[in-house]
TrEMBL record:
Pfam families: Orn_Arg_deC_N, Orn_DAP_Arg_deC. Homodimer. Keywords: Amino-acid biosynthesis, Decarboxylase, Lyase, Lysine biosynthesis, Pyridoxal phosphate. Its EC number is 4.1.1.20. Pyridoxal 5'-phosphate binds at G218, Y356. The keyword S-adenosyl-L-methionine does not apply. The gene is lysA. Residues 18-354 form the Orn/DAP/Arg decarboxylase 2 C-terminal domain. It comes from Flavobacterium litorale. It comes from the Bacteria. Specifically catalyzes the decarboxylation of meso-diaminopimelate (meso-DAP) to L-lysine. InterPro entries: Ala_racemase/Decarboxylase_C (IPR009006), DAP_deCOOHase_LysA (IPR002986), De-COase2_C (IPR022643), De-COase2_N (IPR022644), De-COase2_pyr-phos_BS (IPR022653), Orn/DAP/Arg_de-COase (IPR000183), PLP-binding_barrel (IPR029066). Belongs to the Orn/Lys/Arg decarboxylase class-II family. LysA subfamily. This is Diaminopimelate decarboxylase. The modification N6-(pyridoxal phosphate)lysine is found at K49.
Length: 408
């Protein structure tokens, strides 16, 4: 998107604001499709947790996407957006048996990641097809908080527990129709991913009635100029060849599944915030914006990088700024960052704000959450209104202490 288009949207809808470019979402989806065009059966399940706005889900449905969900609420969002249950896979972690059964009753594909629940579910519902999430014990991901396939991870059933897993399947007579893994986000080395995939193939061969193998996702996108990213084309060539050979060995045409979230929506997103104050101290120039980690927590939580541009003065002289928010704790989006000269009232644009930005936003400090806008065919559409103070207090029940004290 052009900076003048983004500025026009702040004038139309206010700020701070999240903007998503539908064209980028579409191009990323087609890029993944193209990389695996030689797979006979490919299924892309968008990871709802990255960005769960209903309009974004409907856009992806138009492209042919399924959904990867991790909560019953995400399942309900998918159904509300028009997805059929069989196009949704549910991969929870640490949820109750009751929630899993409730989702299964909706006809959604269940993916189980621990032996206890597997045995309970298989005993009670042996005819319901189940996918199994394997932990391949492979470390992948750009940060320890988003690496989920290593030996100390809470996710998945360890490959070293295969004998126990197979006993449960045999004893319950349950039907296993899929095998799944997810090593982590921001995968840099496709050889590590392919190594984990080989472990998954070795696991899959032990099950005779599979319909699909789900390789998760975690593909890295660029966050700045010349940034490294997952080579999707190279991965497509190598994994397609191995997957097709495996299907021949297995004796059945399986579906290859991915569950990208960040890969599809991260680069589509722009977060726009106004500069409230430029503050010079003895060592630093701070640009304080009308936002904080209540709206974009990734730099504080993951030490993630978001490119920041002053779109009110894109061609100005560059200076060094620390861009900070208005939250009462340390709230730094960028330290000592080179940005064109900033004055109070300017609009700063945070790039790669499509994934895990609004979806992780909160009302911390009793602040409201911003609006969301979808840029579709050269026009901005409001797809979520900004919150008001009434939204924050709506569910609160205020006690009347005067009445209570009088009763005592």
């Amino acid at each position: 998107m052009e900076t003048n288009q983004l500025l026009a949207l702040t004038e139309q809808f206010g700020n701070p604001i999240y903007v998503y470019d539908a064209t980028k979402i579409q191009s990323q989806y087609h890029k993944l499709e193209q990389a695996f065009k030689n797979v006979n059966s490919l299924r892309i399940n968008y990871a709802v947790k990255a960005l769960s706005n209903l309009s974004v889900l409907k856009l992806l449905k138009q492209l042919g996407s399924g959904l990867d969900t991790v909560s019953i609420q995400e399942v309900q969002l998918g159904l509300m957006a028009g997805y059929s249950p069989e196009k949704i896979i549910y991969t929870p972690n640490g949820v109750s048996m009751e929630e899993i059964e409730e989702v299964a009753a909706l006809g959604v594909q269940i993916n189980i990641d621990n032996l206890s629940i597997l045995e309970q579910f298989g005993t009670k519902h042996p005819k319901t097809p189940v996918c199994i999430r394997i932990n391949p014990h492979v470390m992948a991901g750009g940060n320890s908080n988003i690496s989920v396939g290593h030996i100390d991870s809470k996710f998945g059933i360890s490959i070293h527990q295969m004998p126990h897993l197979l006993r449960i399947v045999s004893n319950t007579g349950m039907r296993i129709n899929g095998i799944h893994m997810h090593t982590g986000s921001d995968i840099l080395d496709i050889e590590v991913f392919l190594y984990a995939a080989e472990i998954l193939f070795n696991t899959a061969i032990q099950f005779k009635n599979l319909e699909f193998i789900d390789f998760g996702s975690g593909f890295k996108v660029p966050y700045k100029a010349d940034d490294i990213e997952t080579d999707i084309e190279e991965l497509g060539k190598k994994l397609t060849k191995r997957f097709n050979n495996f299907c021949t060995e297995y004796g059945s045409e399986l579906t290859l599944c991915f569950e990208p979230g960040k890969f599809l929506v991260s680069q589509s997103g722009y977060f726009l915030a106004k500069v409230n104050v430029v503050k010079q101290t003895t060592s630093t120039v701070f640009a304080g914006v009308d936002s904080g980690f209540n709206h974009l927590i990734r730099p504080m939580l993951y030490n993630s990088y978001h490119h920041i541009q002053n779109i009110s003065n894109p061609n100005g002289k560059e200076r060094f700024y620390s861009v900070v928010g208005y939250i009462c704790e340390t709230d730094t989006f960028a330290g000592n960052r080179r940005i064109t000269e900033i004055t109070e009232g300017d609009i700063l644009c945070f790039y790669n704000a499509g994934a895990y930005c609004f979806s992780m936003a909160s009302n911390y400090n009793s602040r409201t959450r911003p609006a969301e806008v979808l840029w579709y065919e050269n026009q901005g559409y409001l797809i979520r209104e900004s919150e008001t103070f009434d939204d924050i207090v709506r569910k609160q029940i205020v006690m009347d202490f005067d009445v209570l004290n009088a009763a005592v």
